[in-house]
Please model this.
Amino acid sequence: MMLRTRLRTVAAAFAISAGAAMISPALAQDAVPSPSPAPQAQAFNDQKLQAFTVAFLAVSDVKEQYSQRFRDAPSDNEKQQVQAEATQQMEQAVDQTEGISVDEYNQIIQSAQTDEALAQKLNGMIGNAAKPQN
Model:
């Protein structure tokens, strides 16, 4: 039961994080639509996807830390400040993950939004990585 809840949380976090990465100007500053080929045309090797998984879990932890602060912020200005700080921390979490850059992280997020097979693979990898080690 606990594992199923954690996997649902991870899946929900993936969807939320994907949306946040698209909205967040610091994380998705290069996510401007262009006439270039769709991101899913790019293949990502398993090493890159593993680095993404580590970065994703770190970003999810940051998001979890800031979610309550964001909800409790009394004004829109303070909410913006909390969001800016959270975005900076998420960027740092990705930057500190070996084997992936913020741009690559965003490319994988974008690709997973349109490539069902990639999304399923990532959800599996994230679910496995999130399992408690016995």
